[in-house]
């Protein structure tokens, strides 16, 4: 039996043709395809400025740098995320301060974020984890009240929205990833979104050696450019994203309706989830390892995102951590112990969805 994979990146004929067309054109780095991709992507974020870069992590780093966040600053982040969220903060010389998540959404809890704000806090950085939007109304208000920058880590949440407003259009900046397993990809890639034209210009300078005109360097910058091959692939994928998102939602609906043994993911009022991951909680009586083994035996792949919260990973747990704080994150610890992601990607067929539901519903039956 072929195992149903948790993620299935698409590299189809259209993507291959787009890449070959760019290669034959000879115009391969940050040319017309990148400009076209930025323009098309801005329609997803209420027309905000978009700057394409070579990864989601680069997007986060450049967003922080462009907003002037660095040594001496603290950034409030969830610990229940991919390490890139906190790595970007450390890479610009600032310090992540970890705040707990909400039980239902798995995203940064605005009350916990408020409690984590101190005299050095420069920014809040919520993550729209698994494709569910964070509680942006409360977080925008909190950032405004304290005069803080707000960076949305939207790496997993292309097309997600809250109250009709898309993610990436709430914060001072929004950051997307186009890594192959994300809801759309450009092989590798990322996008910074912002409503502030001057900030967008700073990101553009920072991604390309501080230059707008060649050899007229204005500031110190890096080389974090996107290639036109990536942008051309990204444009093909962007065109398919609405249809793929609908399929993810329909798949999630079928899993919600069918699964009786596991705690299926709730959706907050007003939120449009895009199911980058379909993440359940496994009740203690079943046990997560036993569940994964039983699912695998039934041909159903599953994965744990993320088994170790960031604050317990070596670079953040060590005594070198300049904040020297201890973290009390009960919902984060609980989620890390209980979550399990099931296949939800758009390539699933009806028979596969049935197999996933059937395999889930036999869990715990033997005991
Ligand atoms: C994937 C991801 C990133 C980093 O994106 P890359 O393109 O892999 O650098 C950042 N944050 C979160 C939450 C992610 O899932």
UniProtKB/TrEMBL annotation:
GO terms of molecular function: pyridoxal phosphate binding; transaminase activity
N6-(pyridoxal phosphate)lysine carried by residues: 182
Keyword terms of this UniProt record: Aminotransferase, Pyridoxal phosphate, Transferase
Record-level GO BP terms: polysaccharide biosynthetic process
Cofactors named for this entry: pyridoxal 5'-phosphate
Catalytic residues, chain numbering: 182 (proton acceptor)
Superkingdom to which the source organism belongs: Bacteria
InterPro entries on file: DegT/StrS_aminotransferase, PyrdxlP-dep_Trfase, PyrdxlP-dep_Trfase_major, PyrdxlP-dep_Trfase_small
This protein's record includes keyword Acetylation: no
Protein family (similarity comment): Belongs to the DegT/DnrJ/EryC1 family. L-glutamine:2-deoxy-scyllo-inosose/scyllo-inosose aminotransferase subfamily.
Protein name in UniProt: Aminotransferase DegT
